[in-house]
């Protein structure tokens, strides 16, 4: 479920490469950590699955054969959700692992909605004559969960649409009026998002002809040796003043230092607590970037530091910060930035989890203000976990700067 990715252990996997060679085996302690994590997930979801089966299956207006089949689906899903979504850890063949991840992720998305509609049904039955609505409400809960999952799947798998956002800055010089930034974030290239999807994003971004392109983290879910061919299209991104990238938390699950080298190899400019001064129409604008908010817990030298990112820059030009998580905003405001571009939240990805993001982040999606600092939080260009977006569509954001009136 959205937000659950913050608790995923480091994504170091043992895989069989396409040429038949096997990547470096996972250290035993890492494999043990993944097994413990999968067991925890199983223990969380097993009682949820039992509750869903107990409340719905007996009330469905079908014969015993179909009820037994339903019980089998619940039992299989109880195992498939934790061990399917983490199949890349336990299965050597990457092709087989990817298919299991697809199955586990789709199941997780479906049962997430089925749980919500089962709860709503149980609450509703407290206030109506249950004898008249038991069967009908069970069918309705099941049907709605399938419908939401199908719509969410179609929304997730399409290439993100462009969202146009005008942001007024108090100190924007006239020469920078109309300066454009194309932002993409949270693509999550991995078992279910591959190179063809990435190429579609690249084509749509390049068609915007932006002044700069900002990639605000969580590009990958997997190691360089697994995914380099799928992230390669990002090297074809083209903007007048360059393509800038900052790390997200998932880069630190996937080998951040190796990915930073790979991003630079394909031509992306990685900003690690540093900045660039861009000259546009003989006028300066500063683009800075910080490492992920939690990066220092994995690599102490990568601790996120907005003050360091802006250190030594000219004081007068407008200052834009690329920061994966919206909760970097307090430090960004204190450091003197005018605009922060973030992602991470996915806008909640699908209902009703969008209502819970605020428990962990100050902003869920869209344009907000914190003192003098504008913060734009993208809903993300891909998805994480379940291939499902409902009520929180993906986006490619085209930001246009303007002078505040």
TrEMBL record:
Keywords: Hydrolase, Membrane, Metal-binding, Transmembrane, Transmembrane helix. The keyword Metal-binding applies. Residues 180-347 form the Calcineurin-like phosphoesterase domain. The keyword Membrane applies. The chain crosses the membrane at residues 37-57, 69-91, 100-121, 133-154. InterPro entries: Calcineurin-like_PHP (IPR004843), Metallo-depent_PP-like (IPR029052), Metallophosphoesterase_sf (IPR051158). Pfam families: Metallophos (PF00149). This is Metallophosphoesterase.
């Amino acid at each position: 479920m959205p937000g659950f990715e913050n608790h995923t252990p480091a994504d170091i996997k043992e895989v069989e490469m396409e040429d038949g060679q096997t990547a470096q085996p996972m250290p035993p302690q890492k494999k043990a950590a993944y097994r413990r994590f999968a067991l925890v997930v199983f223990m969380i979801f097993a009682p949820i699955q039992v509750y869903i089966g107990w409340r719905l299956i007996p009330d469905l207006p079908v014969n015993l054969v179909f009820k037994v089949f339903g019980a089998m689906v619940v039992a299989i899903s109880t195992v498939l959700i934790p061990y399917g979504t983490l199949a890349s850890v336990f299965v050597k063949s990457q092709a087989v692992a990817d298919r299991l991840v697809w199955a586990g992720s789709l199941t997780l998305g479906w049962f997430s909605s089925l749980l919500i509609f089962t709860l709503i049904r149980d609450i509703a039955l407290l206030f109506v004559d249950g004898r008249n609505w038991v069967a009908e409400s069970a069918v309705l809960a099941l049907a709605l969960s399938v419908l939401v999952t199908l719509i969410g799947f179609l929304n997730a798998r399409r290439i993100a649409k462009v969202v146009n956002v005008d942001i007024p800055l108090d100190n924007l010089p006239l020469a920078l009026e109309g300066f454009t930034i194309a932002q993409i974030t949270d693509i999550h290239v991995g078992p279910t998002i591959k190179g063809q999807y990435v190429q579609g994003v690249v084509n749509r971004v390049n068609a915007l002809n932006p002044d700069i392109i900002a990639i605000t983290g969580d590009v990958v879910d997997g190691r360089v040796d697994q995914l380099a061919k799928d992230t390669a299209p990002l090297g074809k991104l083209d903007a007048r003043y360059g393509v800038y990238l900052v790390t997200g938390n998932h880069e630190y699950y996937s080998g951040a230092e190796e990915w930073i080298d790979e991003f630079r190899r394909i031509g992306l400019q990685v900003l690690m607590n540093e900045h660039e001064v861009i000259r546009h129409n003989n006028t300066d604008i500063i683009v800075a970037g910080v490492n992920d908010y939690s990066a220092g817990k994995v690599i102490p030298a990568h601790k996120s530091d907005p003050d360091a990112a802006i250190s030594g820059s000219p004081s007068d030009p407008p200052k834009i910060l690329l920061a994966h998580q919206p909760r970097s905003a307090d430090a960004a405001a204190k450091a003197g930035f005018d605009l922060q571009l973030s992602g991470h939240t996915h806008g909640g990805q699908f209902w009703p989890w969008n209502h819970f993001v605020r428990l962990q982040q100050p902003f869920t999606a869209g344009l907000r203000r914190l003192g003098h600092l504008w913060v734009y939080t993208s809903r993300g260009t891909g998805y994480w976990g379940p291939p499902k977006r409902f009520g929180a569509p993906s986006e490619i954001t085209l930001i246009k700067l303007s002078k505040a009136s």
